[in-house]
Specification:
It is a single chain. 72% of the residues lie in helices and 5% in strands. The chain has 177 residues and is mostly helical. It has one domain (27-173). Strands 1-2 form a two-stranded parallel sheet. The chain starts with a helix and ends with a helix. The mean pLDDT is 86.
Length: 177
């Protein structure tokens, strides 16, 4: 019985020591939407992107109007056209349709100019935010930082773990290296 008590005591002591040596996980939370909305550089980039989209949308609207007018004229005149003229007009309409499709892909497709411009303007801003988050996390001795605004669902977070405004402060002071 005495041996069992010694073994249990030893087991308890060893397990307690092992648990005490485990690094403690400290979790922090940021809201990237708040951070982005407070950054003048982000607002400026968004304004530039909106201007580009507006310009391209106007061009697309113009192409679409040309296409629609051509199609309407064709439908009205179709019965009066010879087969050769019909065929030529159909080809022109299809050419316009293809031009509209190509324009959309070139400007707004996954690898389009909008996507490239967005990356060009926003990547440096995002990198700066990540550096600020890393700096604040190290200062606060945080092991893991979650983004409340992202796809990660944070159902509750203690406000004392929210690093959003510390990250914003870091970005505003410009001391991110």
């Amino acid at each position: 019985m005495k041996t069992v008590k010694i073994i249990l005591s030893l087991f308890f002591f060893v397990s307690t020591m092992m648990w005490a040596q485990q690094p403690q996980v400290k979790i922090g939370v940021v809201d990237s939407e708040i951070i982005l909305s407070q950054l003048p550089d982000y607002k400026k980039a968004q304004d530039q992107l909106n201007e580009i989209v507006k310009k391209w949308q106007n061009e697309l609207d113009s192409l679409s109007m040309q296409y629609q007018e051509r199609l309407d004229n064709y439908r009205k005149q179709e019965s009066l056209m010879s087969e050769d003229v019909k065929l030529k007009e159909q080809q022109e309409i299809m050419k316009l349709e293809q031009e509209i499709y190509n324009f959309r892909q070139r400007k707004f497709g996954q690898q389009g100019e909008f996507s490239q411009k967005q990356d060009e303007l926003l990547t440096p801003i995002k990198q700066n935010i990540i550096k600020a988050i890393e700096k604040v996390a190290k200062e606060e001795k945080v092991t893991l930082v979650l983004d409340k605004a992202g796809d990660v669902v944070v159902l509750y977070s203690d406000p004392s773990y929210d690093l959003t405004f510390k990250v914003l402060d870091q970005l505003r002071r410009g001391k991110v290296k």
